[in-house]
Amino acid sequence: MKSAHIQHLYNRIGFGITPLKLERLSKKSKHEIVDDIFINSATITPIKADLSFLKDIKPGDLKDKEKRQEIRIKSRKKVQKFSVSWMERILNPTEVFREKMTLFWANHFVSESRNNILFTQNYNNLLRENAFGNFKDFTKKIAKDASMLGYLNNKQNRKKSPNENFARELMELFTLGQGNYTETDIKESARAFTGYSHNFRGQFVMRKNHHDENEKTFFGKTGNFTGDDIIDIILDQEQCAKFISEKIYRYFVNENINKNHVAEMTAIFYKNYDIEKLMRFVLLSDWFYDDENIGTKIKSPMEFLAGIHTIVPYDFEKPKQAILVQRLLGQTLLRPPNVAGWKTGRNWIDSNTLVRRLRLPSILLNNAEITYSDTGDEETMVTNLSAKKLKRKAFIRTKTDWSSFEKNYEKIDNKNLITQVLSSKINPGTEKLLLENINIPKKDFCIQLMSTPEYQLC
């Protein structure tokens, strides 16, 4: 398999690849490499938070206002720590493709539970566990997840006063896409999801006294439908397979849809909604490796940070600074902007985030420092740390592992480093600048490569 194609594959299913691994894999066939990717991501390793503070808490404790507030404050801090743990997992993944798929599903089945670490942990691991599973089963589990039940108000969905929020987003954002259902379908399906709730520990509970047992008419079918029945009917629509295939194509292949390729994906996926089978088909398709799909995708902030880490491992000296960097770049894990999630592609880049991205490799790897205002709309390179006006600013500092870089890139000179780091076509101006600096130390040249506009693409 061509080295450029292996690099492309690992940029999309993970966060880049080192020269040593690239050299090893270049001796294998495409099928062998793709098989290895799935074998290496077969294991499921949940992220676990410290929940010991919940051990002795009883449901009755939540009736006490002060006790409830105390639990909420502790839980909120744990959620923040969980966000850091998730980022650390992304930077140091064992099951690489599973973690990339977890990121994808987090921006599809969007949910948030800021004040409950147990619900946050369960939701995040639910995404990880079902990343390559059956989409029908996955959707049914999401509908019963405590975090989702709270986020989209289905906990308040009762037969006497149906709440349509989850039913609407289920079809618009999770399965069919806008315009592929009617307002009547929303109302009728909402009735099927009445009574969905959970207990104190986040386990699903059907409140039968709140469930509407009467007949509902949904997509032309009539019956005493439950939520599971509604999901079955939705997935009977080929539009669902097409909608998910399009979303996967935009994320893993190209923001610009190729209808023929998506039609092929839809045909595969519609048979049994097997996510792994769909992803295998994509990665083994010749068109996945077409030039038009290589180096054309704008990296998300997490892909950008993880890509740098693949080349030069680094650790934040203070965990909170990991969240600060996420905010700087516009993607804070566990804090989606809304139920539609983050807008991708060109939406990742604006005048502020582009400047921050271009500076960040030097900040993370070269002991440069950056200030971050409380408003989040400015940053300044700092040289005089004793200035009084900077005392209220925060600084990002890391520990870098240049020894790993030197080991992985020992046989790579600066000229070849260009193609190792950059996968997109290089602008003539960028190329001229790089060639002028081709003889600078390899570390500095690497940072310069990661500080180019071309490095924003994969």
Percentage of residues in strands: 5-15%
Computed structural class: mainly alpha
Distance between the termini: 19 Å
What's the order of the H and E elements? HHHHHHHHHHEEEEHHHHHEHHEEEEHHHH
Average of the residue pLDDT scores? 93
Main sheet: which strands, in order across?
7-6-8
CA gyration radius, whole angstroms: 24 Å
Characterization of this structure:
With 458 residues, the protein is mainly α. Among the domains are: 1-40, no CATH class; 301-456, no CATH class. The chain is 51% helix and 6% strand. It has a three-stranded antiparallel beta sheet, with helices on one face. Strands 1-2 form a two-stranded antiparallel ribbon. Strands 3-4 form a two-stranded antiparallel sheet. A hairpin with a 2-residue loop joins strand 3 (216-218) and strand 4. Helix 3 packs antiparallel against helix 14, helix 4 packs across helix 16 (319-329) and helix 9 packs across helix 10. Mean pLDDT is 93; it is low at 373-392. This is DUF1800 domain-containing protein.
Give a quick precis of the structure.
This protein is mostly helical and about 450 residues long. The protein contains 21 helices and 9 strands.
How is this fold's topology laid out?
Blueprint: H1 3-13, H2 19-25, H3 30-40, H4 65-91, H5 96-106, H6 117-129, H7 135-143, H8 146-151, H9 165-175, H10 183-192, E1 196-198, E2 204-206, E3 216-218, E4 221-223, H11 227-235, H12 238-252, H13 259-272, H14 275-284, H15 301-311, E5 314-316, H16 319-329, H17 351-365, E6 370-372, E7 379-381, E8 394-395, E9 398-400, H18 402-408, H19 414-421, H20 428-436, H21 442-450
Helix pairs in contact: 3-14, 4-6, 4-16, 7-11, 9-10, 12-13, 19-21
Protein name: DUF1800 domain-containing protein
InterPro entries: DUF1800
